Amino acid sequence: xxxxxLLLETEGEHFxxxxxxxxxxxxxxxxxxxxxxxxxxxxxxxIFKITSRNAAVREWFYSNQAAWHCxxxxxxxxxxxxxxxxxxxxxxxxxxxxxxxxxxxxxxHNDPNAAQRNSLGAAYRLGRMQELLRxxxxxxxxxxxxxxxxxxxxxxxxxxxxxxxxxxxxxxGQWRVLSVLDEMIQMxxxxxxxxxxxxxxxxxx
Length: 205
Description:
- The structure is a single chain.
- The protein has 2 domains: 2-148, no CATH class; 151-197.
- Helices cover 45% and strands 11% of the residues.
- It is built from 8 helices and 3 strands.
- The chain has helices at 2-9, 13-16, 19-31, 37-53, 55-63, 65-77, 103-110, 114-133, and strands at 161-166, 171-181, 184-189.
- The mean pLDDT is 81.
């Protein structure tokens, strides 16, 4: 999906002239996989994302409602995940090809709270599809895209001053980062009086 998203977002006549045929073939692929619930959940989430962030794709969906109206029908018909052991003859099954049923999938299906989660998920998908139908999709192009965030940008650097929350005491204090080693950091407390409260002011990892 990331590669397809990149192709749709790339400017230049070579790419923009092919955007409509790509989207048409994409929807044909989606329709041919209507029988797989988990796959459809992921695909719908991708459609919600790309139409919110790409104005050209959003306008294509607005102008070609007949091409994707079947998605709205699918969302209305499948409000609950099928049983993991349900066969393809029933119309829709949970996964594509699974010889062995995962215990976690069975436990999730039998969870008494699963019905409520399914209901919320179905309402969310239906609401987003109706936004698309009414041409009221929010423009999120200026919002950070979590799929494109480089986690390196969030790593601490030696010398950074950070706030460290002590959940047991419900207190926060200022600490300086002394050194960084992969996923570990060494810090020292910048508030000496905290030592009297049982909080070490010496460097810690």
